[in-house]
Amino acid sequence: MFNIGDKIVYPMHGAGIIENIEEKEILGEIKKYFIMRMPIGEMKVMVPVDNVIDVGVREIIDKVEMEEVITVLKGNRSNMPQNWNRRFRANMDRIKSGDIFEIAAVVRNLMLLDIEKGLSTGERKMLSDAKQMLVSEMVLACDMDVDEVESLIEESVNYTEDEDEEKKE
Q1: Along the 169 residues of the chain, how does pLDDT read in single tens digits?
Q2: Which among 29, 30, 4 has a CA at the least distance from the CA of 18?
Q3: Taking a C-beta distance cutoff of 8 angstroms, is the pair 40, 139 a contact?
Q4: Do residues 48 and 31 make contact, with C-beta atoms less than 8 angstroms apart?
Q5: Long-range contacts of range 51-57, CB-CB < 8 Å, 24 or more positions apart?
C-alpha cells in the first residue's frame, strides 16, 4: 500500500504525490482517500484507497524507465487506423491502460500526425490530455520543471537520427 509522500500515478489523471490520507463521508458512506497533489496546476485529487488496485494506481517510473520513455518518444510513428474514429478508440484504450510507454507512444503518434496532416478537435484534446499525464509523471520522475519536460518531449518527438550523426562528428 502507499503512504504519505509516495509518488503515484492515477490512470487518466496523471502522477502526483500523496499529501494526506483522510476519511471522508460521501453519499452517506465513510471511506479512506489518498489526497494527491498534482505537479501541474497544483490540483488535488482524491483517490479512494479501496479502489487503488482496481483502477491501476502504481508507483511512478524510475530514471532507467525514464530513458525508455525518451526512446519511445524518439521512435517512428506506429501504424494506426486511417479512420479517425477507430484511431481515437485505439489511442483511448492505450491511455486508459495507465502504462507510461503506451501513453508516450500515443503522444508521439499524435504529435507526428499533427505535423503531417493535422488533428481533429477530439484528437487534439486527446493529445493535450495524454501529454499532461506524461508530463506529470516525468516531472516527478526526473526532478525537472514542467517547461523543461515539455521541451524534452518536443525535442524527443522531433528528434532525427541526423542529429546523432552531427554529434558524432
Answers
A1: 899 999 999 988 899 999 999 999 989 999 999 999 998 877 899 999 998 988 889 999 999 999 999 999 999 988 888 888 899 999 999 999 999 999 999 999 999 999 998 899 999 999 999 999 999 999 999 889 999 999 999 999 998 655 444 444 4
A2: 4
A3: yes
A4: yes
A5: 52/1, 52/2, 55/10, 55/11, 56/11, 56/97, 56/98, 57/2, 57/8, 57/9, 57/10, 57/11
How far are the Cα atoms of 41, 99, 128 from residue 113, in angstroms, in the given order? 27, 21, 14
Which three cell numbers, joined as nine digits, stand for 65?
524507465
C-alpha cell at 147: 517547461
Alpha-carbon gap, residue 100 to 16, rounded angstroms: 14
Q: CB–CB of 103/132 below 8 Å?
A: no
